[in-house]
Design goal:
This protein is α+β, with helices and mostly antiparallel strands and 70 residues long. The protein is built from one helix and five strands; from the N terminus they run αβββββ. The protein has a single domain, classed as SH3 type barrels (Roll), CATH 2.30.30. This is Hfq-related domain-containing protein.
């Protein structure tokens, strides 16, 4: 059995960001701010594509917040 529960609201919201290709901002516990589009997610990580289509994989436990970019 997987720990990746697609019934959780947070997982569904991230899936909507992926599907709709929303630009997001992701703040890390280090204070770094990443911006781009979410490419994929799994139970441990989220992959962000920046404006140069460079992929960054972020561990979920290092995320302070994730929000749509205004």
């Amino acid at each position: 059995m997987s720990d990746f529960d697609t019934n959780l609201p947070s997982i569904r919201q991230v899936q909507n960001f992926i599907k709709d290709k929303h630009e997001i901002e992701l703040k890390l516990v280090t204070g770094d701010l990443l911006a781009g589009k979410i490419f994929w997610q799994d139970k441990d990580c989220i992959s962000i594509l920046d404006h140069y289509d460079k992929q960054t994989i972020v561990w979920r436990h290092s995320i302070v917040y994730l929000k749509p970019k205004s």
